[in-house]
Structure formats: structure tokens, C-alpha cells
Design brief:
The chain has ten helices and six strands, in the order βββαβααααβααβααα. It is α/β, with parallel strands linked by helices. It has one domain (2-59, 94-240): Nucleotidyltransferase, domain 5 (2-Layer Sandwich). The chain has a six-stranded mixed sheet with strand order 5-4-1-2-3-6. Strand 2 (16-23) and strand 3 form a beta hairpin. Helix 1 (38-44) crosses helix 5. The longest helix has 17 residues, at 116-132. The mean pLDDT is 94. It holds the Pfam family DUF429.
Length: 245
């Protein structure tokens, strides 16, 4: 089995791709690159059982409805002046974002009110290209793609998850110490770039999802997850990932 991880930025220069090959009791980091194009990502996804993308896969449904109503001038569908904090929060955060906040105390960036939107626009184009090629891109994580959030995966694995970007050498050490994980000569890039490091964490998250060992939306959450995306949090410990493939 192979899994991939993508740390998606608005520009190629800050986008990283990792590919991990899994065999019973062992994992090898086969590829790790910066400066990754849309075409590189589209080519990699079909070669892997699961790809974790560190980017929101969609926008909040209430926000989408707001834009449609605003464009059409449907005043009855728009809020009264001010709208209120609760109304604005529904525009800003997805169902999965609120679950992450409640369960793990982390607040994902807003795809509708933060710079993450630039990367999400790029992600939408990539997903559309994959779907046109016949790849299942169910945004709830049921298909070839799963939404990854490295900070929450690190928290789940009891590793430093706050303020680690640019100071992640101890985290690379923690991965390197796993006898089952062979970084395959890519350790210098992991240390030099937190984008490359996050791509590896996204590939590990994809492995958990491929094993059925990551969170999935419940029945009431499935409909919004298929539109907005769903952050997969590993339920397996890090050292449980190299199970029999």
C-alpha cells in the first residue's frame, strides 16, 4: 500500500508532496518534494490507496447559501443588519471545524474568512480535475482523498502540536526514532521545511484513514461533510500504523 500527503499552499513553491510505501511492520518514505504543481498532485493520487490533503476541501454550507442569496438579491434570505456573532460563526466555520474545536481544543483556520481560502480555491480545481478523471473525491473522506490537519494528528499522537512550525526538529527526531519508519534520505528536507514535514504527517494520516482508523462523520454530519469536507483524525496510535497491509 502507498499513501500520499499534500501540504497545499496557494503557490507551488510552498506546496509539498510525500509518498509513503507500507509493508507489514515497515514504512518507507519513497518521495518528498517541494515546489509541487497541480499536475504532480493529480498524477500521484491514483497511485496511492489514500491521499491526505492539508487544506479545507470545501466551504461552510451556510456561507455558500449566503453568497447565492446575496448574488441573487434575495433580501428575505439575508440576515438583518449585523447578523449577530452566532450567525457570523456559522458562516466562518464548518461542521468539522466545530467538532475539532470541541473535541481537541484546536481552531482550524477559516476557509471563508482567512488566507486559507487561496489554497482552498486551488484545492477545488484539483478535486475537479481528479473527479473528471474518474477518481472518487468524496469530501467526507470515503473516497481517495481525506482532509488532513497535521496539528490535530500530532496532538492525537501526544507530540508537540502548537507553535512547531519552523521549530520542528524534535518532531523529526520523534519520527526518526520509530524503527519501522525509514525516511529514505529525505530527513534533511523534513528538517529544512515545515511544509515538507506537514506533508509527511498528512501521509501518515492518510494511512490511518486507509486502515479505517480515523474519525468519520456520523449520520447527522455526513451531508454537510460531503459538501464542506471532513477532517480525519487518526484513532490509531502512531506505532499502530505499520500493521499488516
Amino acid at each position: 500500500m502507498r499513501t500520499a500527503g499534500v501540504d497545499l499552499a496557494a503557490a507551488d513553491e510552498r506546496t509539498a508532496l510525500a509518498v509513503i510505501e507500507w509493508s507489514p511492520g515497515r514504512a518507507v518514505l519513497r518521495d518528498l518534494r517541494l515546489g509541487v504543481s497541480d499536475a504532480d498532485i493529480v498524477a500521484a493520487v491514483p497511485t496511492c490507496a489514500k491521499t491526505g490533503i492539508d487544506c479545507a476541501l470545501g466551504w461552510p454550507e451556510p456561507f455558500i447559501r449566503l453568497l447565492v442569496a446575496h448574488r441573487a438579491g434575495h433580501a428575505a434570505d439575508l440576515p438583518s443588519p449585523g447578523g449577530g456573532a452566532a450567525w457570523r460563526r456559522a458562516m466562518v466555520y464548518r461542521t468539522t471545524d466545530e467538532v475539532i474545536r470541541a473535541d481537541f481544543g484546536l481552531i482550524p483556520l477559516s476557509v471563508s474568512a482567512d488566507r486559507l481560502a487561496h489554497a482552498a480555491m486551488r484545492c477545488a480545481a484539483i478535486l475537479a480535475t481528479l473527479a473528471a478523471a474518474g477518481v472518487d473525491v468524496d469530501r467526507s473522506g470515503a473516497g481517495a482523498i481525506v482532509e488532513a490537519y497535521p496539528a490535530v494528528a500530532l496532538r492525537r499522537w501526544d507530540l508537540t502540536h502548537r507553535g512547531y512550525k519552523g521549530r520542528h526538529d524534535p518532531l523529526v527526531d520523534a519520527l526518526r526514532a520509530r524503527a519501522w519508519l525509514d525516511l529514505g534520505g529525505h530527513e534533511p528536507l523534513m528538517r529544512a521545511s515545515h511544509d515538507a514535514f506537514d506533508a509527511v504527517i498528512a501521509a501518515l494520516t492518510a494511512r490511518a484513514a486507509a486502515l479505517g482508523r480515523a474519525t468519520r462523520p456520523g449520520p447527522a454530519q455526513l451531508a454537510p461533510a460531503r459538501v464542506e469536507g471532513w477532517i480525519a483524525v487518526p484513532t490509531a496510535d502512531l506505532d499502530e500504523l505499520p500493521e499488516a497491509s
